Amino acid sequence: MKYLNLLLLLQPVLAAHCPPTGPLLPPPSLASLPDSAGLHDRLNALLTSKTSSWNTSTNSFSVAITSLNDTIFEHHYTAPVRGEGGVAKVDSDTTYRIMSITKVFNALTLLLHAPYSLDTPVTKYIPELQGSKDYADVTLRMLTDQSAGMPRDGYAFDLYNAQGQQLIEAGFPIPDNKSIPSCDAVGMKTCSRATFFENLLQNRLSWLPGDKAGYSDQAFTLLGMAMENITGKPFAQLLRDSITTPLDMPTTGFNAPIRSRGIIPTGPGGVFWDFDIGNFNATAGLYSTPNELLKFVRAILNHILLSPANTREWMRPSRFAGSYTMGVGAPWEIFRLSHLTPDNRPVDIYTKSGSLPGYASYLVLIPEFNIGGAINVSGDDGDDAAFDLLDAVTSIAVPALDSLARVQAKETYAGKYTGQCDGLNCTASDTSSLELVVDSGPGLHVVSWVNNGKSVLNILAANKGAKTMDIEARLYPVGDGDRWRLAVERKHHVGGDTIRRPSEACSMWFQIDKMRYASLPVDEFVFRLSEGNAISVTNPGLRAKLTKEQGHGGR
């Protein structure tokens, strides 16, 4: 529990920091989830909460979390009231419908079959769209990152299907018969391809292509069709050959497994267990299990299917969704959570939600800590339950993981590093040293840096027109071996995520590789580790190698 003790001892920082995005310390090594007992307690508390917005008698769920290597947390709950014929007890091999998590599989399948540019107009691959002015500028990339402006659901959730009579009584007009959906909705047949496109093309785009984020199920239906035209293979086969077979995910697919292997919701949602959603399979049709979803998460985190560079390119926001607190990717729903760590920095939580009457789900990845997970719910209050479970996971896991990362970084890197000059008549004033601590701020805090007897921090402060006491220097990992980069900022710079004028903005990214001396970077530090502990650090620009003092573990 020492990582929790450190968290309690750390004092709040006085200034808003301006770190880079991504990991600010090396991700912690994990044998289990830190504070797993606290997360179990929080999840159990949801079942007895009197303020819960969902019925614990009818909603079953699974929460599973994985590191790079293995499952590190599981919590399953089997509601007493369930649909007939399903599992008697939920576990990690129980089958759920995962709905729009399918979009992540869809996007990855596209990336794995992309000898073409993602900026190619979709009209090139779907003949029914050729000649449409609306779709002439819609690209494959826009479809993946929800910026195409596509109509959302077509006939699938038309209000008339569910509550037409009530809406007419409330003043809505009586529609003509040809406007009433007759396919692609619950209890109806699947629309023919011709009918699907007839409905699609009679509607204008919701937003202009490439402009705003706007959620669309039909966008991923088009992606599935485009990939079929590009490869000449059915989308289900493409996904199977590209992802589920290589990753040994036999249950994950578009066909409902036998009922006894699944968790069946009671109430209206029960009809969706084996309901074929036809044209919407490529956007929301998959079934899977918590175990298999964790295999998928590990494959992403370990770059098994995509190269590291392509994975990093994929795991990023493409635009904001009306607030800096949420970004949209391809097809990631990215929450930027602050105030969960001592430095109050934003931590990016990459998710993809899924929702259908009777089921709700989240695929979750936190790249900063090299973990991810799956949240699956079966029940007619699934959306509320899934959000509560996601809140619980992030509010417990992020602080605990951040604290563990600080403990491990302190043990590995914190301390005093010293070196002597190369001359024959060296004096104490010629020595060089670097002192690093792990405090409540981000990264490694450089509290002292001397080269040939002179303070480097004094020079850095002078270059900023500031006093040494008014600046702060911190090291951040590059992610490539043990290379780190230096960032220097004023202590009382406003920064942060709420500013009143441009001059207050966080602009640390301008500084990277800005300090070079005789061709080599002064803002780069390369550590050498032995048995998991730093033994020396090299600064290329200063041509300095400093050795860590024995028994000096920093503060």
From TrEMBL:
<feature type="domain" description="Beta-lactamase-like ARB-00930-like C-terminal">
    <location>
        <begin position="405"/>
        <end position="549"/>
    </location>
</feature>
<dbReference type="InterPro" id="IPR051478">
    <property type="entry name" value="Beta-lactamase-like_AB/R"/>
</dbReference>
<protein>
    <submittedName>
        <fullName>Uncharacterized protein</fullName>
    </submittedName>
</protein>
<dbReference type="Pfam" id="PF26335">
    <property type="entry name" value="ARB_00930_C"/>
</dbReference>
<dbReference type="InterPro" id="IPR012338">
    <property type="entry name" value="Beta-lactam/transpept-like"/>
</dbReference>
<dbReference type="InterPro" id="IPR058664">
    <property type="entry name" value="ARB_00930-like_C"/>
</dbReference>
<keyword id="KW-0732">Signal</keyword>
<dbReference type="InterPro" id="IPR001466">
    <property type="entry name" value="Beta-lactam-related"/>
</dbReference>
<feature type="signal peptide">
    <location>
        <begin position="1"/>
        <end position="15"/>
    </location>
</feature>
<dbReference type="Pfam" id="PF00144">
    <property type="entry name" value="Beta-lactamase"/>
</dbReference>
<feature type="domain" description="Beta-lactamase-related">
    <location>
        <begin position="61"/>
        <end position="387"/>
    </location>
</feature>
<comment type="similarity">
    <text>Belongs to the beta-lactamase family.</text>
</comment>
